[in-house]
Structures are given as structure tokens and as C-alpha cells.
UniProtKB/TrEMBL annotation:
Pfam families in UniProt: Sulfatase
Annotated keywords: Calcium, Hydrolase, Metal-binding, Signal
Family: Belongs to the sulfatase family.
UniProt protein name: Sulfatase
Organism: Sphingobacterium olei
CDD domains in alphabetical order: SGSH (cd16027)
Length: 495
């Protein structure tokens, strides 16, 4: 069935006119817990949308007018890092404010164990009406954090969100965790986003530029635009109910785009997230301040006037929201890659212009499902490699063995294609980041499993023969589930 493009409709639904810069008066509660006016929160988390796959982050392919308006009138973060580039462990990390190996759910499909503190649960206990709608993927423990949990409606799960806003108790502040299923495979096309022409797509350099990949990206961008459509609907509903001025809207993704060398990986294409905050007294513009996804829990609790639970490893960046990043927040952001269909144990630290990655299993290909032959872009990449048509920037997923360590200088190498580990000019940076990584591993109780979860599938997406079961999780041997240590955050913390 042919679906006509609706870019003109999307343009008419842009939220620019609905959004307005909130007044200073409304925001005074951020520093005054005694105020009777609590802020509201819309936490809009998308599924598998890459950090730079939005118009406001420079993507030339996609139309995202509502997200772009939010970025223009709020604060756009250029250096927001996830703690892992894998759906369920990323969400469990965000909701607890803890690193994946400290949540007890570091691998794909691991349910969050009982006893972990979730920040929406703390808001609920403080009188907030809390709802999760759309993708959950964190397990049954989330029932303790939300008054209502809905699977959502429609292909992207966003279909009941405005109704939730309308039907909320009017005598309570609210926190709504709206978790879009866009843009997760398999693609579902409808009339809530434009239909992109594959011939117009500019293909990222780590992908093979062929017809299957172009078609795959065109469908992906459709779902990105559908998420944008529903953000516009939310903003207009808040405006209609006179709630926009006292509501924080946080927009982000759980991991990188679902394509080779992105999702599941610790390069910026996988581990960075788009991150936009709009709300009372939020600075207007963009910031290069470094933040981590574990900081979200502390920040929301601080803005709500709540105490931050000592189980949370992240630190509030509320001061950045006010001053636009002039205050110091982080010198280091850490991330990890654990089992995601394929065996893995990688660790990453971002410091200033440098990224350092350590791989405990360099004898393995670095794969997730999206980088295999299972989906069109991956299949075309593998076929091109078989025929000798790929260039070095496209061959990362085929490397066996890999380097145990990787070092990248981002200003000269934004895609992290050139490993500088063996460059003598950069040995001081390498030695320093090794030391930082060692301290973080020791303080947070990370460990390399002796009996790790093995590969589950082959490169065609088929289950491997024989019995498969999960193995030891990272951090278990060191009691990471119970630790409250945060690891180094500033240069002065490094010993």
C-alpha cells in the first residue's frame, strides 16, 4: 500500500509556536524545597535513535521539526554519554542511576533485580503521579516505581500518551516515562512520518553505500520522524492544559542507531545520545559539558526537590541547566559493552577530547545482531566485504582478532577510525587513561567473568546448536550490586 509523504503536515505541527521560554519566577523551586509548586516531567526516551540522526544535530537526511524546536528553546547537550549501547541494560542504568554492572542487569534482556532503587519510585513516594508507557524492557520490578504501566498504542507505542496527560490526577505533580518503540526494527510504516526517498539518503561512512542500505536507512528515518511527530503532540497538549511552563521535557535515546558499528558499540555512533532538556529556567542554547546517563536520576530528583538516594552513582547536573555548562560537572564519562546476543566485555572512558576503550575478549569479532547478516544493511555490508568492495572504515565488524586497547583523538577523528594506541606521541594520554580506567574498575567493583555468557546466534541470526544459557555477569565476583562507590568524576579524584 502506497503511503503519501506528509512532510507538509509535519511542518504545520511544529512546536515552535507552542514552546516558550519559561519565566524565572516559575523556576525558583529548583533551589527551594519548601515551595508548594512542584515541577512536572516528561521523560521521552526513544529506541535505537543515533545521537546525530536528528536535524538539530546535523543529520542531512531526516525531518525532525518538533525536536529541533525543543533544542532551539531548551538546552542541547553535545556530549551526553550512555553507560551502555544496549536496550534493556541502558534503561536499567538510567532508572537506577547506576552503571550496568552495578545494577545486576548488565546484559540484554536481564530483568532489574529486586532491591534496586529506581528514581521514579522515589518521586512516587514523594507524591508524584508516575506512569510508564511504551517500551519497558526492565522487568517486573518497575511495578514498584509507577502508578500505571501501559504497553502503549500503535507501532511506536506513543498512541496513548496524550490521553495519559489528559486523564492524570489534577491534584498531583506528574512524572511520565514515555518510551517510544521508534526507531526499532522491524520497520512499520504509517502516516505519522514522511516517506524518505532512498536515492536522497547520505550514507554514514561505516556503512556500505548500496540499495539495501539506502532503503534500510530510509525506513529508519521514517520512524525517527514518527517519534518527532508524537513529541509535537505532547507539547501541544501540555500547552493546551497550561502545563507547559511548569514541565521539564527531557528527550534522549537508549543507544545508537540499529546498524553496523553503531548499536551495541562504544564508539560515539553507539554510545552517545541526543539529549535535550526544556523547562523552567533552563538555559537556552547548547553545551559541550560532559554528562553521563547515570546523572539523570540525581538531576530529576534535585529538580523535584527530593533528596538523592545514596545508592545512586550519578551526580546532578542541574547547575548546567541553569548556566548552560559554565559550571564544572564531569571530566570523565564511563561506559561498558556486555553480552548482547554475542559475547562481549568492553569498557570505555571519555576524557576531554580522548576516548579510550579496553576489550577483555579481543579474540572475538565485535558483533551485535544489527552488524550481522540478519538485517538488510548488515547483509549488504557482509556481501560487499565478501566481494572485496568495502573500504577500511567499513571493515571494523570483520576484524579478528581485535586490539586489546583503542585510543582516539576526537577532534581529528570524530568517527573513531584511527587507533592511536601504538602512536608514541600519545603514550602519556594512553597511560593516564589506563590509570583512570583501572581506578573506575576497582572502585565500582567491575570484573571480567570467568564463565561469561556465550554467543547465542550465528551471523545469520539463527540460534547456535546445543543448549544455550547465560553465564556469569560482570561485577558479580566483586559484589558490584551492593557497591555505592561512584568512581572518579574529576581529574582531582584520580589517584
Amino acid at each position: 500500500m502506497k503511503i503519501k509523504a506528509i512532510s507538509k503536515i509535519l511542518g504545520s505541527l511544529t512546536v515552535g509556536l507552542a514552546l516558550q521560554q519559561p519565566t524565572q519566577a516559575v523556576a525558583q523551586y529548583a533551589a527551594n524545597k519548601e515551595t508548594t509548586t512542584k515541577p512536572n516531567f516528561i521523560f521521552f526516551i526513544t529506541d535505537d535513535i543515533g545521537w546525530d540522526d536528528l536535524g538539530c544535530y546535523g543529520d542531512p537526511n531526516v525531518k525532525t521539526p518538533n525536536i529541533d524546536s525543543l533544542a532551539k528553546l531548551g538546552l542541547k547537550f553535545e556530549n551526553a554519554y550512555l553507560t551502555t549501547s544496549s536496550c534493556s541494560p541502558s534503561r536499567s542504568s538510567i532508572i537506577t542511576g547506576r552503571y550496568p554492572h552495578n545494577t545486576g542487569a548488565p546484559e540484554l534482556h536481564d530483568p532489574l533485580p529486586s532491591g534496586q532503587v529506581m528514581f521514579p519510585q522515589l518521586l512516587k513516594e514523594a507524591g508524584y503521579y508516575t506512569v510508564l508507557s511504551g517500551k519497558n524492557h526492565m522487568g517486573p520490578q518497575t511495578k514498584h516505581a509507577f502508578d500505571t504501566i501501559s504497553p502503549g498504542k500503535g507501532p511506536g507505542g506513543e498512541g496513548d500518551w496524550n490521553q495519559i496527560i489528559k486523564n492524570r490526577p489534577k491534584n498531583q505533580p506528574f512524572f511520565f516515562w514515555f518510551a517510544s518503540l521508534d526507531a526499532h526494527r522491524d520497520w512499520q510504516i504509517n502516516d505519522k512520518g514522511p516517506i524518505y526517498n532512498p536515492d536522497d539518503i547520505i550514507v554514514p561512512p561505516m556503512l556500505y553505500d548500496g540499495p539495501k542500505t539506502r532503503q534500510d536507512l530510509a525506513a529508519y528515518y521514517h520512524e525517527v520522524s514518527r517519534a518527532d511527530y508524537y513529541l509535537g503532540k505532547i507539547v501541544r497538549e501540555l500547552k493546551k492544559q497550561n502545563m507547559l511552563e511548569n514541565t521539564y521535557i527531557i528527550f534522549m535515546s537508549d543507544n545508537g542507531r540499529p546498524f553496523p558499528r553503531s548499536k551495541g558499540r562504544l564508539y560515539d555512533s553507539g554510545i552517545k545520545t541526543p539529549f535535550i532538556v526544556y523547562g523552567p529556567n533552563v538555559h537556552q542554547g547548547k553545551t559541550n559539558a560532559l554528562i553521563s546517563a547515570i546523572d539523570i536520576a540525581s538531576t530529576v530528583l534535585t529538580l523535584a526537590g527530593n533528596d538523592v538516594h545514596d545508592n545512586i552513582q550519578g551526580v546532578s547536573f542541574h547547575s548546567i541547566l541553569v548556566d548552560g555548562g559554565r559550571s564544572e560537572h564531569r571530566d570523565f564519562a564511563f561506559a561498558e559493552h556486555n553480552w548482547h546476543v554475542f559475547q562481549a566485555h568492553e569498557r570505555m572512558v571519555r576524557h576531554k577530547d580522548w576516548v579510550y576503550i579496553r576489550n577483555a575478549f579481543p579474540e572475538h569479532q565485535n558483533l551485535v545482531g544489527e552488524s550481522t547478516r540478519q538485517f538488510p544493511a548488515g547483509s549488504e555490508l557482509w556481501d560487499a566485504h565478501d566481494r572485496g568492495l568495502t573500504v577500511p572504515e567499513q571493515e571494523d565488524v570483520f576484524l579478528v582478532p581485535r586490539e586489546h586497547e583503542e585510543l582516539y583523538y576526537l577532534p581529528a577523528d570524530p568517527y573513531q577510525f584511527t587507533n592511536l594506541v601504538f602512536d608514541k606521541k600519545h603514550q602519556n594520554s594512553l597511560v593516564y587513561l589506563r590509570k583512570v580506567m583501572d581506578q573506575w574498575v576497582a572502585e565500582t567493583g567491575d570484573s571480567v567473568p570467568q564463565n561469561p555468557t556465550p554467543d547465542r546466534d550465528d551471523v545469520y541470526g539463527n540460534r547456535l546448536p546445543g543448549e544455550w544459557k547465560k553465564g556469569e555477569r560482570a561485577g558479580v565476583a566483586k559484589g558490584a550490586l551492593k557497591t555505592k562507590e561512584k568512581g572518579p568524576r574529576h581529574i582531582k579524584d584520580v589517584r
